[in-house]
Amino acid sequence: MLHLRVISPPELTEKVVGVLTVEAGATNLVVLPGAAREPAGDVVLCDVVREAGSPVLATLRELGIDECGSIAIENVDVTLSRSASRAAAAAPGLAADAVVWDEIEQKTGEETELSGTYLLMLGIATVIAGIGVILDQPILIVGAMVVGPEFGPLAALCVGVVRARRRAIGRALLALGVGFPIAILATMVNTWLLDLLGLVDEGMLLRERPLTDFIWQPDALSWIVGFFAGVAGMLSLTSAKAGPLIGVLISVTTVPAAANIAAALAYGVWHEAAGSALQLLLNLAAIVTAGVLTLLVQRWWWRGRV
């Protein structure tokens, strides 16, 4: 269930209350006249089941509340209320299947900021993975996959494509296009430093690495795994369930592929660098394709239900 806090100009409050009163999926309606100071207006509080979230928010935005007032959305984990149960039963569809578009756009939009934290996290993940591929240690690869923040821009790219948001698409592409090269460069420098310290050497990269050689040897399964990981990742975002996303992060080979590119370039092993680059591109393309298709199917399915 979603909790809405709406700040409405007094002249629009009755329309806002009317929207929330008519909606079967809304409950726990509270109106506080003149309670808001910045922006000034009335405060309207309401709980809305996820199934009704997008229609209600779309109507409020049509009234211009987001321009002349404010709309805040919070997820409610537990609601003990008979009226809330009635609202959930009255709304069509199931909460797990509902996509609250404003929520997912906001959530993924925050992940496309080319911040120092994003670059540092991606760089650290790639450096860890770089050590993992040289040592042929899957545990380091898995750890790097969890640390890597690249799924955020990928999800934002999918949402931007489906919602035709050019700015979101541009920001996501910028985050990916700048982030990965910087992470690869950082991993190359780290590999050289470790080599100078005698901790790694070219022979470790050239030897047989049966536990991690899949990273630079992509095949049809690389696409399949990336595709289904993209589906699962998008479903975890749209359903507001964070648990499955961890599994997604440790099933795609984006960060490890970037790390293997860096290690191979550092030692001039060009065939591994090329194979890793192909692996990276395959995973990125599979995730985006799957994410876009998942959102399109969800939108089609939900429109059919309501």
UniProtKB/TrEMBL annotation:
Its keywords, alphabetically, are: Membrane, Transmembrane, Transmembrane helix
Which residue spans traverse the membrane?
116-135, 141-162, 174-200, 220-238, 245-270, 276-297
Entry-linked InterPro entries: DUF389 (IPR005240)
- Keyword Cytoplasm listed: no
What domain of life does the UniProt record list for this protein's source? Bacteria
Q: What is this protein called?
A: DUF389 domain-containing protein
From the broadest rank down, the organism's phylogenetic lineage runs: Bacteria, Bacillati, Actinomycetota, Actinomycetes, Micromonosporales
